[in-house]
Design a protein that fits this description.
6 helices, 4 strands, 37% helix, globular
Length: 150
Amino acid sequence: MRTLIHPGPVSGVHVKNFGNEFAMLAGLDFTDSDCCVFVDADSQTPLHKVREMLQEYARGYDIVKAVKLGEVTQGIQGASRLAFYKLFQIMSSVSLDDRSSDFRHFGKSAYRSLRQCRERTRFSKAYYEDIGFRVGTVEFSLPKRVAGET
């Protein structure tokens, strides 16, 4: 990844069996770089999109989210996901895109703000949209999962 994106140091945090919310929080606590990118460990994250994220960041977006193109999930899981987002929209003033992923780029000010959100029961996608920073978007097609389960 280092040569694909930036010649500087690249770090990673792996938090096993505690869920992605805790892993992302651990990454926020660990980093002190100019920016950070959240990627999934299931090989579904299209790393070639990081370059586009950096371009959006250079255009002034503090957070750049990756939005999935096409059908995200189907069947009962897809219906449950859509119902959750619809209910969330009814109950909250935070506007969420149900195609958004946790694959995101954060500038230093944005990730430092997220670092202050210390709740143990987290729904980070809501924080991303609600902390008050400009949010840009890149789109990607969801590749077939190599490992893990949804």
